[in-house]
Amino acid sequence: MAKLTFASIRMLYRDKQALFWAMAFPVIFTVVFGLFDFTDSPEARFGVVAERPTPVSEALRKGLREIDSFTVERRGDLAAARADVEDGELDVVLVVPSEAGAPAPGRSAAVTAYYNEGNVDVNQFALDAVTRIVDGLNLQLAGVTAPAIDLRQRGLDGRTVEYYDFLLPGLVAMGVMNFSIIGMSVAIARFREQRILKRILATPLRPVKFLSAQVLARLLLSLVQAALILAVGVVLFGAQIYGNVVWLFVLATLANLVFLNIGFAVAGRASNADAAQGIGNAVAIPMMFLSGVFFPTDTLPGAVQAVVKYLPLTPLIEAMRKVSIEGLSIADTGPQLLLLGAWVAISFAIAGRAFRFAKV
User: Can you tell me whether residue 42 is helix, strand or coil?
Assistant: First the structure.
């Protein structure tokens, strides 16, 4: 059995397409996402319109310029500034009246902010900054030099989870799924096209041994694949893994049994290798985008969430994130393990009914 498994590994090595799905494709995703800085503050472009420079307009300009991602410029024509907001040249225009900073008793002067309603993320960040600056100005103009309540902030040494830390377990799970479903389905469909499966039936070699060797070879390669993705994420891009890495490999191995069974089922219904790849993509791609690889599933509509949580990729990602991000043991992923175990049985039954040695 060991010799047959190593022979299957050599066959995979010679199959460049299988090797691409196993190694290069998920690593490319890992590198591409690692190049983005998801912690960077959004950039915002401000225009300050004032008939003449006032302490308020200058304080606004100074306060906004202290934020590195903001650019601030003086504008003299309000109509032109508003047109620039509508055209996307500016994000926010602040109109400071000449009486601002010296309001009459019982009256206040309003600083008006014009912004593009389409830039939701930039608006929230930019307008929050303006609000903080205006609140500080109001305290100064009211003569408050020592606030009655002082907020004292004390930082604690806690766990910091960046988006890339959240993303990396999902990329590992995605790589396992793609390699197992697409790689296995294409390989088996190709064996059937080349009549290798029928020839094996005429030899003393039991077909179950041949197929088991294929499964073991892919299980071993999946662990190499997972290690490669994790190494790229941790070493090159500084991702943090707070739990025991060994549990990630255990989860990948268990889930691989599910996805390999799905690969057998796909191969059983595909007429050739190209059809197997197409069907495999049709199965894998929806799970890749719906099961939480890139974004939390709780951002989906409620009805979709109710379906997505039972897809086989979802419990794998959830379990991996519990280990990787929350630092939990595999014993704490009981519900996810139960669901994966159920999928092993279900997918095995489906593969048994769908798989054929001869062409469909």
Answer: coil
* Tokens read off for 107: 């009256």
Mark the ranges of the chain whose per-residue pLDDT is less than 70: 1-23, 37-41, 99-109, 120-121, 141-148, 150-160, 197-198, 200-202, 205, 207-208, 210, 357-360
Minimal CA–CA distance to 185: which of 110, 108, 281, 252?
A: 281
Looking at the chain, list the stretches that DSSP marks H as alpha helix, in order from N- to C-terminal side. Answer: 2-14, 16-19, 25-34, 55-65, 78-87, 120-141, 163-178, 184-193, 196-201, 207-231, 245-269, 273-290, 302-308, 313-324, 334-354
pLDDT for residue 172:
92
pLDDT score, position 133 = 81
Reference 45, options 78, 94, 110, 96; nearest CA is: 94
DSSP code, position 143: T
**Helices of type H across 237-272:** 245-269
Instruction: State residue 250's pLDDT score.
Output: 93
CA 340 → CA 220, 248, 310, 317, distances in Å? Answer: 19, 14, 9, 11
Distance set, CA 359 to CA 33, 192, 201, 277, 355 (Å): 41, 6, 14, 16, 10
- Identify whether the C-beta of residue 280 lies closer than 8 Å to the C-beta of residue 185: yes
Tell how far CA 168 is from the center of its chain: 8
Quote the CA–CA distance of 72 and 44 in Å, as a whole number: 9
In this prediction the pTM is 0.71
Cα 330 off chain centre by:
22
Rounded to whole angstroms, how far apart are CA atoms 140 and 331?
57
Six-digit token pair at 79? 């109509």
- With a CB cutoff of 8 Å and minimum separation 6, the contacts of 315 are 309, 335, 336, 337, 339, 340, 343
